[in-house]
């Protein structure tokens, strides 16, 4: 069977990996590099090349499908589980947030508020089903559960940095999912997983399996139309060329899918329009010295700066793997009118450096070796109140059209690398099962 996969992110490559041994698979990627949101830069320091993701990623111990895939590909020896120190920068002061004792010293909250925060987290850990919380706004649930002070002094800045103007419309289901995924903490704090050498090794291994089994991955090739006739997929248009196929797995974001199907997904049309995606402007900066000298990996921020988080990769991974200090500075934006999207790259980077100068008195631009900016308008869905009813199914309606991505149920109520792998696998398995169950036409 000839199968076209649109997009070479983890969902697309996972689907291709699952299907390539018994089908003819072609993956089309509009960008020059594979990987989507997991794509990497290839950089060089002192004659040594290394890969580093354009947008920071890590693995959680609960990511069972992703970890199984890593083992299956023979990459388990690259896995490291390391302490990742967190902090919260509020009104000019840095608060470590790793252990219960450190959290008790978070002075923006009173002792009573800290107790309410602790009870809220405990309550979240006990929640098994997030469905009832999909119709409740996170803001309202926090106010009802922990009070105004906990919301305004702890959660509101975090929601604002994550979702901007949409912060107050995000569902409690997303918040619960987010806290759950970040709650694997021992006495020393949180440990996260990372692949030594970067996730590029995983992408290349998946791509290698596809090609060695006769598949093809074509970059710089944008699918402009999924051709559907008589409610069945006929093929795709790429650069004006029609390519016939028996099935398509699309991983593109909903509004793009709506456009390239010409609005023919009638049953899904409303959902495709209602799922809102937000963008990301993520800078990666190479430094000749550490930025956060206290060893913090991840810092959330409540301050008058144009970004919401600073992530110092080399306060987590060994410095010798890179030969230089690596820092992510990141912000989300909600539409194409945002300054983070319309400004020139050098202007966005300059605003980020000004923000770092404001936050870190010891930071100097003389220590900046290089800087890069990665921007996408379609980073991830905004999990608004009532989002669940718009989660896209793995089948799209027309025969032969399947969907997988951050919009899938496996990435709800919080997205992850594992959720994308699961989405790719589930779409591939459903395609295989559906095609196997088709009754062959009788030959007269």
UniProtKB/TrEMBL annotation:
One of its GO terms (molecular function) is oxidoreductase activity. It holds the Pfam family Amino_oxidase. It comes from the Archaea. Residues 10-430 form the Amine oxidase domain. NCBIfam families: PRK07233.1 (NF005560). This is Phytoene dehydrogenase. It comes from Methanosarcina siciliae C2J.
């Amino acid at each position: 069977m000839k199968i076209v996969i649109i997009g070479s992110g983890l969902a697309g490559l996972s689907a291709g990996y699952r299907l390539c041994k018994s089908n003819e698979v072609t993956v089309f990627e509009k960008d020059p590099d594979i990987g989507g949101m997991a794509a990497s830069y290839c950089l060089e320091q002192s004659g040594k090349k290394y890969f580093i993701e354009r947008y920071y990623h890590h693995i959680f111990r609960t990511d069972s499908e992703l970890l199984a895939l890593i083992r299956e590909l023979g990459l388990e020896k690259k896995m490291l589980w390391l302490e990742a120190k967190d902090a919260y920068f509020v009104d000019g002061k840095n608060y470590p947030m790793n252990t219960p004792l450190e959290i008790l010293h978070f002075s923006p909250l009173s002792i009573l508020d800290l107790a309410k925060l602790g009870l809220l987290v405990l309550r979240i850990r006990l929640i098994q089903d997030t469905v009832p919380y999909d119709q409740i706004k996170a803001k309202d649930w926090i106010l009802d559960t922990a009070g105004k002070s906990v919301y305004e002094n702890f959660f509101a800045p975090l929601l604002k940095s994550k979702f901007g103007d949409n912060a107050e419309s995000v569902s409690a289901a997303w918040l619960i999912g987010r806290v759950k995924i970040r709650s694997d903490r021992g006495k020393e704090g949180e440990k996260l997983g990372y692949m030594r050498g970067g996730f590029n090794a995983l992408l290349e291994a998946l791509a290698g399996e596809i090609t060695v089994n006769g598949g093809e991955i074509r970059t710089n090739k944008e699918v402009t139309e999924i051709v559907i006739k008589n409610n069945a997929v006929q093929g795709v248009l790429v650069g004006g060329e029609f390519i016939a196929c028996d099935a398509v797995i699309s991983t593109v974001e909903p509004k793009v899918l709506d456009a390239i199907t010409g609005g023919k997904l009638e049953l899904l049309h409303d959902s495709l329009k209602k799922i809102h995606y937000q963008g990301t402007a993520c800078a990666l900066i190479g430094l000749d010295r550490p930025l956060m000298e206290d060893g913090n990996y991840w810092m959330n921020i409540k301050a008058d700066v144009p970004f919401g988080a600073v992530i110092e990769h080399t306060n987590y991974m060994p410095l010798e793997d890179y030969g230089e200090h690596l820092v992510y500075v990141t912000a989300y934006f909600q539409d194409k009118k945002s300054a983070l999207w319309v400004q020139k790259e050098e202007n966005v980077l300059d605003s980020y450096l000004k923000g770092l100068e404001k936050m870190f008195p010891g930071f100097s631009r003389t220590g900046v070796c290089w800087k890069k900016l990665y921007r996408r308008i379609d980073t991830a869905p905004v999990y608004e109140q009532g989002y669940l009813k718009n989660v896209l199914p793995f089948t799209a309606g027309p025969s032969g059209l399947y969907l997988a991505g951050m919009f899938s149920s496996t990435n709800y109520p919080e997205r992850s690398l594992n959720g994308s792998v699961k989405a790719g696998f589930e779409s591939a398995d459903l395609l295989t099962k559906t095609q196997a169950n088709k009754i062959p036409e009788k030959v007269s």
